[in-house]
């Protein structure tokens, strides 16, 4: 395997230019730049809000300096609250080419679009010969999410991803699982897998935070389609979702955008701190996908029972279908058929191995179904976290001389 | 532990999960379990393999996934109409269940 070597030592499996709108008012210009260039490696991401927000700035900094990103064009209207200077500087410091276009200074929509096409095309050409280096298993960072779960997810696709995670972790890769709101009910079982008792307590605490938050919001992480597919309660969905994490030790908790501080298996704490402020933690699956990518995920294993079709900007999404009926219906969108487990034709271990093989293929440049189909969804919204790193919870308390 | 159409995921479970759509009146036979379906059951849905009393936990994967809101007879579909979450109410497009 070969990867794109970045100045920070991380290696990407894709070499993309992201065109970033920094407020909804710049969306059309950025989108038109991307659609006119019409190249798989020029992708649109952005943030719609005009109010500044620490979380979204940090997320954008991490996304624009992601190993799969080779260069960046920022598109600003000019008067929005997003700190474009700081974002630009972070990208410069990372050694990547970046151009900031301010529509109010450039002379308007058409001029900025033309300028953006020129800048993005130049960057794309310039990063084509970026250094390639041997991509090791230990360079891989893989995230997992489930979307459109049903009663089959927890007995086919999710445990199969769990098997794949165990295989990846054995080879020293880093794996991220998430949605503390979808772990409500399994916090104590999960805590037993923590590498330390302190981490076990922190795992329980972050699920309790999620339960409190979702209870205030009035809805669990539970959609009508979950019920139509046979799932009845949040805790039933949780147990199924939890199976994605496999059976390896859990090595830590990370916040969205936080790069795992070591190799191993990490839970992402996606639920904001404090009283609900900006709404639901993640308004739909892509918001979670973006958070795992911001934390360095090079690809995402997406399990689905009802049948999701999404992909993502920046990192490929691999679709693992849990339900044999859904697979028949939506096979053009699915990379792996875990429904064969439900039909008794394959075992969880066999499908886990197929997902592992698929990971290697995608890391080698093979395209996932959603990539081939042109899915490059992206969502980033407002959030608030009190601490900047979850690992702070895990540091021993007391004067440093006693540690 | 697989019938063609139903699976017992854990010995402690009081429900089976449907792997292939089945019809009212069909017999389901697994080691130590024999029941007749009280309704049509779709893939991914649950059926009681024991009588489950009101207030008793519904067990899947060997752990509680909520509790019965009415007495559930062996062979019945187990879903929003007869069980609820012990954490957060579930919702459908039409209603919220289990508040």
Would you give an account of this structure?
The complex is a heterodimer of chains A (403) and B (99). In chain A, 38% of the residues lie in helices and 16% in strands. Mean pLDDT of chain A is 94; it is low at 392-403. Chain A is built from 16 helices and 14 strands. The two termini of chain A are 41 Å apart. In chain A, helix 1 crosses helix 5 and helix 2 (54-64) crosses helix 11. Chain A has 2 domains: 2-133, 3-Layer(aba) Sandwich (Rossmann fold); 138-387, no CATH class. Chain A is globular and about 60 Å long. Chain A has 403 residues and is α/β, with parallel strands linked by helices. Chain A has helices at residues 27-37, 54-64, 84-93, 103-106, 109-126, 157-170, 187-191, 197-217, 224-228, 234-242, 285-294, 324-330, 339-342, 348-363, 369-372, 391-394; strands spanning 2-5, 11-12, 16-21, 42-46, 69-76, 98-102, 132-134, 141-146, 174-177, 252-254, 265-268, 299-304, 317-321, 336-337. Chain B is an all-beta fold. Chain B has a single domain (6-97), classed as Archaeosine Trna-guanine Transglycosylase, Chain: A, domain 4 (Roll). Chain B has strands at 6-7, 15-18, 27-30, 33-36, 46-48, 57-60, 63-68, 77-78, 83-84, 90-91, 96-97. In chain B, the strands form 4 sheets. Chain B has a 4-stranded antiparallel β-sheet with strand order 1-2-5-8, with no helix packed on it. In chain B, strands 6-7-9 form a 3-stranded antiparallel β-sheet, with no helix packed on it. In chain B, strand 1 (6-7) and strand 2 (15-18) form a beta hairpin. The model of chain B has no long low-confidence stretch (mean pLDDT 91). The A-B interface holds A 150-152, 154-155, 184-186, 189, 211, 214-215, 219-220, 222, 224, 226-236, 239, 305, 323-325, 342-344 and B 2, 4, 7, 9, 17-20, 42-46, 58, 60-61, 63-66, 78-80, 83-93, 98.
């Amino acid at each position: 395997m070969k990867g794109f070597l970045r100045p920070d030592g991380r290696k990407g499996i894709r070499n993309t230019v992201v065109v970033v709108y920094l407020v909804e008012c710049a969306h059309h210009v950025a989108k038109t730049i991307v659609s006119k260039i019409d190249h798989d490696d020029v992708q649109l991401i952005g943030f719609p809000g005009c109010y500044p927000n620490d979380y979204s700035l940090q997320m954008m900094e991490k996304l624009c300096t992601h190993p799969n990103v080779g260069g960046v064009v920022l598109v600003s209207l000019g008067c929005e609250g997003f700190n474009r200077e700081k974002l630009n500087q972070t990208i410069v410091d990372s050694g990547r080419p970046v151009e900031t276009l301010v529509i109010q200074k450039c002379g308007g929509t058409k001029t900025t679009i033309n300028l953006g096409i020129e800048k993005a095309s130049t960057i794309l050409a310039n990063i084509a010969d970026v250094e390639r280096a041997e991509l090791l298993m230990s360079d891989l960072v893989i995230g997992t999410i489930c979307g459109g779960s049903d009663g089959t997810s927890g007995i086919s696709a999710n445990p199969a991803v769990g098997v794949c995670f165990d295989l990846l972790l054995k080879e020293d890769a880093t794996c991220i699982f998430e949605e503390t709101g979808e772990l409500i009910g399994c916090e104590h079982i999960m805590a037993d897998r923590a590498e330390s008792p302190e981490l076990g307590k922190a795992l329980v605490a972050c699920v309790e935070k999620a339960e409190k938050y979702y209870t205030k919001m009035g809805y669990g992480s539970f959609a009508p389609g979950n019920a139509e597919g046979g799932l009845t309660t949040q805790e039933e969905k949780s147990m199924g979702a939890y199976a994605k994490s496999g059976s390896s030790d859990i090595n830590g908790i990370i916040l969205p955008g936080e790069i795992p501080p070591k190799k191993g298996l990490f839970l992402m704490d996606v639920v904001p701190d404090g009283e609900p402020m900006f709404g639901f933690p993640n308004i739909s699956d892509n918001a979670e996908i973006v958070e795992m990518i911001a934390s360095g995920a090079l690809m995402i294993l997406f399990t689905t029972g009802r049948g999701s079709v999404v992909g993502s900007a920046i990192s490929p999404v691999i679709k693992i279908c849990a339900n044999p009926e859904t697979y028949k219906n939506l096979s053009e969108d699915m990379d792996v058929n875990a429904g064969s487990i439900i039909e008794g034709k394959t075992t969880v271990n066999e499908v886990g191995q197929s997902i592992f093989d698929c990971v290697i293929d995608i890391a080698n440049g093979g395209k996932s179904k959603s990539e081939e189909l042109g899915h490059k969804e992206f969502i980033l919204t407002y959030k608030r976290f009190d601490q900047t790193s979850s690992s702070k919870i895990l540091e021993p308390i007391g004067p440093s001389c006693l540690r | 532990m697989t019938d063609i159409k139903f699976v017992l995921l854990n010995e402690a479970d009081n429900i089976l999960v449907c792997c292939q759509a089945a019809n009212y009146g069909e017999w389901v036979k697994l080691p130590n379990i024999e029941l007749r379906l009280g309704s049509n059951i779709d893939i991914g849905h649950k059926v009681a393999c024991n009588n489950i009393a009101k207030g008793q936990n519904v067990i899947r994967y060997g752990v509680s996934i909520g509790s019965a809101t009415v007495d559930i007879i062996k062979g019945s579909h187990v879903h929003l109409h007869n069980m609820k979450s012990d954490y957060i109410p579930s919702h459908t497009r039409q209603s919220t269940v289990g508040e």
